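Case study.
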Amino acid sequence: MAYTKRMDGRAVDELRPIEVKAGVIPNADGSASFKIGKTWAIAAVYGPREMFPRFLQDPTQGILRCHYAMMPFSGSGERIRPGTSRRSQEISMVMEKALRPVVDLSAFPNAVVDIFIQLPQTDAGTRCAAISAAAVALAAAGIPMTDMISSVAVGQVDGMVVADLTYNEEAYDGPVSDIPIAMTHISKEFTLLQMDGEISRDDLLKALEIAKSATEKVYELQMKALQERFKKE
Amino acid sequence: MSNITVQERDVVIPGQVLAEGLDYLPGDNTYRQDDKIYARALGLFSLSGRVAKVTALSGPYVPKTGDKIIGQVQDILMSGWRISTGTAYTAMLNVKDASARFIRVTEDLSKILAIGDFVIVVITKVTSQNLIDLTMKEPGLRKINGGRIIQISSQKVPRVIGKKASMISVIKEKTGCEVTVGQNGYVWIKGDSPENECRAEQAIRLIEAKSHEEGLTDKIQQFLSK
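After joint prediction, the assembly is written out as follows.
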C-alpha cells in the first residue's frame, strides 16, 4: 500500500508548527530555542573565549566548536546515555561544517566560539532543529556572520516526497529516505546534505526543490525571533 | 537606481539586504557583494550620508587602542603582569608602564600588584593577533582598592556613561559612590556603605535592561531619588 496521505494530515511540503525564541539563557552570550512539532532544541553560545587545549588554537582565525546532545529521556525509545556517543559526535561535526561557511571568525585568532545544543524532546529532524537554533544563537551572540543558515529535513516516504518527516514517517514500513538539509539564505547554497535510505533521482531533485521553500519559511521565523528579542521601543 | 531596503533604526540580522545599487557604501558590520549591501552582524541599521552601517546590539568587546578598561591580574611574569580583560585575549602590563616610580629589577612584583588585583588601565597597543599592551601611568589609572566590580555588556557601556558623562554623574551624585566604567564592561563601584553601592549597582542594571528607552537619565534620577 502506497503512502498517499501523511499520518498527521499535513500537506506534502507543510512543516510542523515552528516556534523560535532568541535569548532564552541569560548567562550565555547568545541563545535560542527552536521547536518544530515535538522536536525541541536549545542552543547556547559562549565566546569568543580562550581556546583550550592550547594545541587546538588556530593563529589564523577563531574556531567554531559544536556540542550536540540529546537528553536521556528525550526520545520515544530507550533511555539515551548522556554524554558523547558516536552519533552525537558525528552530528556535532556536521553541524559545525554546516554553520562554518557563514561565520566569520577572522577577527578572533586563537579563540573559540562554543555552541552547546541540548534536545529535551525529539521526534526526528533533530540535527536540523539544532542547526537552526544554533544559527539564531550565534546571531544573538553578536558573532559576525555573512549569512543565516536555515535547516529542515526533506525526504520520501513510499513514493511521496515530503518535507519535515516525523519519527513515524521515518519508521514507515516501506522505502523511506530522510534528507537533512541546511541552506544559506542569500546564495541558496547547501551547507548540509545527508541521506538515510533510498530515493530516485527525480524524487531527490523534487525534494531539494521543496527544501528551498521550506528553509525559506524557517528563515522568516528565525528573523522574526531575533527582531523580537532585540526590538527597540 | 539605488535604494535602501530597510528602515532607519530597524533591527537587522546577519545576511539581511540593507541596500541595493552602487550609490551606497558599506560601513561598520556590513559588506558588499555584487550590487547589494548586506549586514554582517545583528544590530541596528543606520544611514549616515551614503554610508550604510549596523550598530551591534550584542557581541564581544573588541579591544581598541586608547580604551580605558578594568582588568584583573592573572599572572606575574619576569617583566610585568598578565592582565585578564574579560575577552578571549589577555593583556600585558609591563613594569615600565606600571608606575611613575622606578621599579628595580630585584623588587618583588607581587608586592606592587598581586594575582587577583583589579587595575584600571589604558590600552596602548593592539596587534593583529589581538596581543594587548597596557599602561597604568596616566592620571586616574591605578590599582583598585575596595568597592565591588560588576560586569555589564560592553555594548551598553556608552549608555551607562551617557552623553558627556551625564548618566554616570547622576549615579555618582545620587549615591555618593565612586564609579569607574571600563570599556570592556567591567564597572567598579566604591561607596561609603554597601547600601549605596547596591543602589548604584541596581541603577546600572536598570540602565543595562532599559538601554533602548528615551529619557533614561531622568528615569535613573527618579529611581535614585526614591
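Observations recorded in class. Residues 148-225 of chain B form a domain with the Ribosomal Protein S8; Chain: A, domain 1 fold (CATH 3.30.1370.10). The helical segments of chain B are 95-98, 109-112, 157-161, 166-175, 194-209, 216-225. We will return to this complex in the next lecture.
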